[in-house]
Amino acid sequence: MLTERIEGRFGMGMDQLKAAVAAAPTANPDATDVVKWYGLLVEAQSVLDRAEDDLVAALQTQPSEVDDPTMGLAHRVNAAVTARDGRAMVVRWLLDPDAPGKKDLAAQRLARLRPRTGPAVQTSAPHRPAGTSAPASAWRSTRAAR
Fold first, then answer.
1. pTM for this structure?
2. Residue 51 CB: number of other CB atoms within 10 A?
């Protein structure tokens, strides 16, 4: 169901969308975020499937009471469900343009915190007046490099 929503939102299949994001990751930040979190969701579902299979196999060999290792497998399934559900919530939030937090002041601040696409500002070392020695930490690092 989420796959269909993603494909509908971006007007292309998942394979095409992944290829487009891989080719130009900064062209559409929304698509890049959705592809990233969708990949994490698919990975979490795979982990959950394996955990459930392990638990079912262990339960089939158990007598009436469940032992500690099998209970550990049950906890692993619960953790995998939580991870999968959390990632699915993120994907749904990314797909919903009217989701809470997308149109308020906090959303504007988050948009400003996005990674910058241009180069960092070029700076040079501060000018030292003649006769001023370098700090001791700089002297130690050059000596260690020898």
1. 0.70
2. 19
